[in-house]
Amino acid sequence: MMVDFSNPIFWFTTVTKVAALVLGAFIVCLAYMGYRRNASKPLLYAALGFALITAGTVTEGILYVLSGVDLLTATATGTIVTVLGFIAIIFSIYSTK
After folding, report:
1. CA angle in degrees (0–180, nearest 5) for 17-21-27
2. Engineering a disulfide at 35: which of 14, 30, 44, 79 sits with its beta carbon 3.0 to 4.6 angstroms away?
3. For residue 35, what are the domain limits?
């Protein structure tokens, strides 16, 4: 399936994915800096979780638009990466120093 670059929904989705990437990278940096400052393993796992959630969000768009993968496969792949991120965050909440 060919992507319609003239469709405003395509551009809206692209802009929101880029915003998610920027905000996610900022959160990952904050969590990682907290880990470095406090030597707190839970913050490291939180940073990993947010990185995976951000990657999952961006993965869908990259797979669908750039790789030509069908939408269902791209969405499923992005969702799997996002779920792994949530697991990492849950692990960070319940882990101890």
Report:
1. 140
2. 44
3. 8-94
